[in-house]
Amino acid sequence: MYLYIFYISASSVSGCNVIKAKEFKNRRPNISPWKTHCAARIGECLTKCLHISFCRSFAAVETKNCGAECLLYTETSLNEDSFLKDETASYFHLESKTCCNPSCQNEGLCDGKTCTCQCAKGYTLTDCVCPASNLSRQFRPPAKQITGNVVQVDSGQQAWAVTINTEIVSRNLQQKPRNWEKIGGSLIHVTSGKAGIWGVNINHYIYFREGVSSTNPVGDTWRQISGLLKQIDSGLFGIVYGVNVHNDVFCMAGITEARPSGMEFQYVEIGYKFKYVSCGGFGCWAIKPDNSTSFRTDVTAENCMGSSWLNVDGNFIQLDSGLTGSVYAISHEHELYTRLGICAANPTGEKWAKVQEGKFKHVTVGYANLIALAENGTIILFE
Hints:
The chain is mostly beta strands.
C-alpha cells in the first residue's frame, strides 16, 4: 500500500488541485460496485467519483474495451482480508483534498469543482465535523416582550435577575402567569444553572442559594461563600466560574451532590486576564479586557480548571453559553450575535451571525429560551 497523488484542474480554483488517494495495487474489494464507468485513463475514474457526493472509493481495472473500467463504491474497504487479488486492478480510497481547508471529516468528500466538502448523511458544517443531531440549539425571531425592570438576567430552570436597586427577582418562564417574584437579599449579579443559583453583591461577596429543588425552584436562603468576585456563572453540574476585580478567573472545586456549594475557588490559570465568563454545555467562554474572546478547553466537574485557553474570533462586551453549547454575545456596537456550528466535536463553532436588528446590553441562554435586554430597558424573550 502506498500514497498515489493525482493532479487535476478544477474550473472554480486557479492552478491545480492536489487530490490524494491511498492505492491498493493489484487489489479490488470484494463488494459490489454502485456503478461502473468506461474511461480512457485512471484519472477519469477519480474525477467521476469526486463529482458523486456519496462515492467513497473506486477501483480502476484494465480491460480490452476501455483504458480503465471504473468501479465506483459508496463505501470503503480497508481490510486486506476483504480484497480480491487482481493483477489488472488497483483500488483507491480517497483522502482529503488540499483545496478543502480544513479537510473533510467523517467520510466527507471534497468536491473537485467547488473545493467544498460533501458531507456524509447525518453530518454537517464546512468540514463535516458535527453530527447534525448534536448542533447547539439556536433561537431565532420572532421574539416577544415581557414585563420587568431589570439590569442583569440569567436564565436556567427559572429566570433570575437583579434590578437597578440590587433587588433580586425570579420568574418561571414555562408557566403562566409569568410574574417576577421578589427574592430576599441584595445582589449586583445573579446566575442560574445546573450547578445551582449563585450571586455576588455590591461588596463582591459571593452567595449560594440553598434549598433549591424541582419543587422549590427559588430555594430558601442565601449562604455566603469564601472569596470575592465581581461576576459569576453557573454552568453544567459541578462547574462554576467567576471573575474578580483584577480580572483573574476562578472556578469552584469539589462540587458534589452532597456538597453542592463545593470546597473552594481556585485560580484557573495565573497570568490570563478576563472580565467576563460563561460556562455552557461544551465548555467555558470568556471575554478579555480588550473585548477579544477565548474558550477554555477540557473543563469538567472533576477538573474545573480545564487545560488551556483558545483564542476565538470576535469582539464582545458580554456573552452567555447555554446547556446545549449555544453561545450568544453583545458586540461593542450593542448588536446581538450567535455562534454557529457548535457541537461536542467542534465546541468553538465556525462563525458569528447577527440574530436580529436592535441595540442590546445583556443576553442569557436558558434551557428552552433566550432573553436579551435592550438598551431601552425592554426584555426580549425568544422561545
